[in-house]
Amino acid sequence: MAPVSPQRPISPIYNDSNAKVPQYRTDEDKIHRIRCLVPYSARVVSVVSPSEIWLQHPNHISGKLTETLSPDSKPLDARMLKKGMYVMAQLNKVDLARARILDINNSNVYIRFIDHGVTTNVKPNALYHMSLTLRTYPWQTVPVCLVDVVPFNKEFWSENEVKALEVALKDYDMFWIRPQMTQKKIIDDGFYTRVTMFGLLPEDINEIQNSFFSDFNLGFSISEKYYALISSRVCFPLPIVDAFEQDTYPVKHEFYERLRYRVGDFHISS
Length: 270
Hints:
Blueprint: E1 40-49, E2 52-56, E3 66-68, E4 86-90, E5 95-104, E6 109-113, E7 119-122, E8 127-128, E9 142-146, H1 159-170, E10 174-179, E11 193-200, H2 202-209, E12 220-221, H3 222-229, H4 253-259
Parallel strand pairs: 9-11
Antiparallel strand pairs: 1-2, 1-10, 2-9, 3-5, 4-5, 4-8, 5-6, 6-7, 10-11, 11-12
Helix pairs in contact: 1-3
């Protein structure tokens, strides 16, 4: 079977991106993302491939964006569910958390918890309405794509390549993230920010927290560690200049079907 990309419903940022002064969407079907253009620190909460890594800022408020599941909680009508829809879903035994529907089939609904970065399958009768108040807060996770990293076959990520990335990331609790700049206008949140990542040691984190500077040359390059773990690679690709030059690649279908059930093995926190 051919490689597949992770499910990404379209998510326009503006009402009309061609307007002279575009206006941000404020309708209930849009929950905006945290869009960082300056370097920042974050932890990894989920990994699909180098083309899709989910981050969470240390000052996230995901624990405050939940509701208590009670006997009076009324599920949504399964006939009203649709791809891209925002809902509340059971995160644990007592809490409902914000989620987005990625896919629907006859017996299961595939969702992503937008504040935790993890995905799961749930029954159609286990989803609940999300209040307008909860829709006003941005996603508490940020999807990014690692720059200057491409699959060996130039087509899709292999299982070994994804595992090499996971090994490179597992050594660190926090990372220094540098967004790659672009001259083009980003009009859809489906475009994952292209970034370089550096694994931070505890002393690096302490320096960042006690400094007035906005950028640091700290940590260990995740791209370099990744290539050191891929024995078939002997050199880096040419570095990109503009973020749009970094392509994204799918993962092999059979591997993605297993991967979708085990994402979130890193640092899920509430």
